[in-house]
Amino acid sequence: MRTIIICGGSGFLGLEVCKSLSNKYKILLVDLKKPKINLYEYKNIKFIKLNLKNSDKFEKFLVNVKKKYQDIYCLINLIYPKFKTEKNILSIKKNSFSKSLNTHILIYFTNCQKFIKIFSKAKRQIRIINFSSIYGKIIPKFEIYKNTKMYVPLDYCISKNSIITMTKYLAKYFKRKNIIINALSPGGIFDYQDKKFLKRYNENCLNKGMLDAKDIISGVNFLLDEKNSYYNGQNLVIDDGFIL
């Protein structure tokens, strides 16, 4: 049974990914918050409390992991550091905007950087899956948020777009190094959102509409499958056609 490191695994989507993959892999769940599950029921999930903003501590963690585990297969980045952002573009403060962008993109970059540095010398293939978003691909459909308290921050879109670009860049940079790096961009995930928003969102989809967290797992399994070793440097979108 191979081992997967999942950063941000205690979050809403991250936890679903951890639980689903634990049937087939050993999971090292790295997050600042403890996951809201009974870890005794999921014996293949080990929680490691770590502030992922500290890249030096993450590197030390990886060094220790390399000593203890000989079967590290993949790093999955599911982190989304949340910051208070203004809806009104003209009211956004420079410092908060900069902090949000720098923190979000930097964690993804340093996680990839440290993981490749520590594990790329192994003869076996390693993989990275970076979670982005449909709003890394398209501009938000502002009309579906009208008269709700919901909105998509500009810094979120820029960060998610940057993650896709970074994924493609790294895949090409490390060609012929036996490293498979892809991004996965989910559509909206149902979490009891505003009913007006849900109706409008679903009208833009092809079949189901707003997805459940478990609907993303097939995409993760696809990116983990060794048979798909030539799917590299790509961004897999799972959104029931929302961005069409």
List the topology elements.
Elements: E1 3-7, H1 12-21, E2 26-31, E3 45-49, H2 55-68, E4 72-77, H3 94-119, E5 126-131, H4 154-173, E6 179-186, H5 195-203, H6 217-224, E7 235-238
Parallel strand pairs: 1-2, 1-4, 2-3, 4-5, 5-6, 6-7
Would you kindly provide a written description of the structure presented here, covering whatever features stand out?
By secondary structure, the chain is of the alpha/beta class. The protein has a single domain (3-238), classed as NAD(P)-binding Rossmann-like Domain (Rossmann fold, 3-Layer(aba) Sandwich), CATH 3.40.50. Helix content is 36%, strand content 16%. It contains six helices and seven strands, in the order βαββαβαβαβααβ. The protein has helices spanning 12-21, 55-68, 94-119, 154-173, 195-203, 217-224, and strands at residues 3-7, 26-31, 45-49, 72-77, 126-131, 179-186, 235-238. The protein has a seven-stranded parallel β-sheet, with helices on both faces. Strand 1, helix 1 and strand 2 (26-31) form a beta-alpha-beta unit. The longest helix is centred in the middle third of the chain and has 26 residues, at 94-119. The mean pLDDT is 96.
